[in-house]
Amino acid sequence: MTRTLRGLALPLLLLACWQAASHFGLVDRRILPPLERVAHTAIDQVVNHGLLGHLAISLLRDMVGFVLGAMLGLLTGALLGLFRTIDLLVFPSFNGLRQIAILAWIPLISIWFGIGETAKVVFITAAAFIPVVLNTYEGFRSAPDSLVEVARAFTFTRWQAITRLYLPSALPSIATGVHLALIYSWVASIGSEYFMTVGPGIGGMIIAGRERFEMDLVMLGILILGLVGFLINRSASLVEARLLRWQQA
Amino acid sequence: MSVAQLAVTRRGDGRSEAQPPTVALALLLPLALLGLWALSAHQGWLPVQILPAPSEALGALWELAKTGDLLRDTSISLLRVVEGFAAGCVLGLLLGIAMGLSPTVEDYAKPLFTAFAQVPTLGWIPLLMLLVGIGEALKIIVIAKAAFVPIALNTMAGVRAVPKHYAEVGAVFRFTRWQTLTKVVLPASVPPVFTGMRYGLTHSWNALVAVELLASAEGLGYLLVWGRQMFWLDTMMGAMVIIGLVGFLLDRLMAGAERHLQRWRPA
Questions:
Q1: Does A116 lie at the interface with B, CB-CB under 8 angstroms?
Q2: Euclidean distance between CA atoms B2 and A81, whole angstroms
Q3: For chain B, what is the domain count?
Q4: Which of A162, B14, B98, B144 has its CA 20 to 30 A from that of A3?
Q5: Residue A123's CATH number
Q6: Does the beta-carbon distance from A111 to B233 stay under 8 Å?
Q7: How many folded domains does chain A comprise?
Q8: In chain A, whose CA is at the least distance from the CA of B9?
Q9: What is the pLDDT of residue B150?
Q10: Comparing C-alpha atoms, which of B163, B139, B159, B141 is closest to residue B151?
């Protein structure tokens, strides 16, 4: 109980200072709009400007990119992890390209794929792809030697070894990769909307708010961004814990 | 020879990672792609605005290097990252140590910190642009924020994880609080703290690219924006290579420092 109260102290204090500063005119209201103004903007955006539609589109785009990236990543990571030749051929190049900060791809992607939906999905896919490849690869390579020997003793076929040994032992690592991909793809969705400013979305809304100097709109956008990120992260953790329950035993 | 060593030898098939055949194999794919790229440019399969010849990309990079633009933009970007990272590092270490040492501080600060960290750096940029404008301050704050979050988190975890008996030895020596902090807690938490700093530096570099793409008139990110506007793909590719290279080198630098600081540990 004390912990909750203590945790609330600083945020409440900040909000109180903010409200006071804004009401007594200590700061420019355009810089720090009062809280009720932000709340009012939120309602106004939902009712009159289709905020929920923007959110739905951002999430949909995010999911399409995430699913594509995760599936491609799983496949690539598994191939790299299982076949030494592919690993030696491809992994160094992948590692080299991975060094380039993901956002630095946006200008090139926007020349190759335009600034519409395709380009955005390509970018989100790439953002989700990288962590899944890395973690799947690591997972497949980290199958315990003792189990590899058991599989050999049972003269498992290649397919049996993959489905009964490598895949199960790679699962925790794959889960980590998919979890990271969920987070990265959400950030990438926002990033793609920042730089490819065509079409609806939460990122586009934030950028529009900045251009029109509407701080309340920007704050609302950031709040949504954080909340969605939080919910995505939380649900991923729950699913992960559930799927990997067998490991605890 | 222990079982673990045996296992390692078997897994590596007795080959070390950097043997020439391995390097040759690693180079095969990039070379093949480069060949295909050159062929495509030679045959004119794709317009130059979509894919310039590899020689042009290299030429653009050379041109940028010769005029000194590349060096100037790279050093501007690097300076920004160093300044922002240093600020984020100091703040992150302070908060991380405070939260790690005192549960009371953690109770007060952690929820607000978590809420602050929940919004990705990219999200804070437009807000900060309205607050502080698009000058140098914006870049430093954004980069500092990117470094601050992972450093604070890892430092806190690191300080928490220092074994109790280390502190007990300190108590036997009648260390003051300050001595316990500087001679016991900090050295013992080097690995996780450095992990945090390494993440922090990577995040800083990514944040730099973000902020320079959104609001800058110089630096590597701006070079990309400029190349995009002029449809100079060769310039953009050159800038991307440098961004990747610098990012890689910064990470290697941190890894080296990490090893250096940990040399007192028994292997």
A1: no
A2: 26
A3: 1
A4: B144
A5: 1.10.3720.10
A6: yes
A7: 1
A8: A145
A9: 95
A10: B159
Residues of chain A contacting residue B206, judged by C-beta atoms under 8 Å apart:
101-103
Place of tokens 């980590």: A176
pLDDT digits (tens, 9 = 90+) for A2-31: 888 888 999 999 999 988 888 888 888 888
Prediction ipTM score? 0.88
B64, amino acid identity:
L
Most confident of B45-49, B54-58, B92-96: B92-96
Is B112 contained in some domain? yes
- Residues A107, B210: Cα–Cα separation, whole Å: 12
Q: How confident is the model at residue A190 (pLDDT cuts 50, 70, 90)?
A: very high
Whether B17 has a pLDDT exceeding 80, the answer reads no
First to last CA, chain B: 16
pTM for the structure as a whole: 0.88
B209:A103 CB<8 A: yes
Cβ within 8 Å, pair A99-B248: yes
| A22 part of a folded domain | no
In a domain, A17, yes or no: no
Would an 8 Å CB–CB cutoff place A3 in contact with chain B? yes
Q: Which residue is closest to B228 within chain A, CA to CA?
A: A107
Asked if A16 and A1 touch (Cβ cutoff 8 Å), the reply is no
Task: Decide if A5 is inside a domain.
Answer: no
Q: Is residue A55 part of a domain?
A: yes
pLDDT 10s digits, A117-165? 999 999 999 999 999 999 999 999 888 888 888 888 888 888 888 888 8
What gap in Å lies between CA B54 and CA B60, rounded to an integer? 10
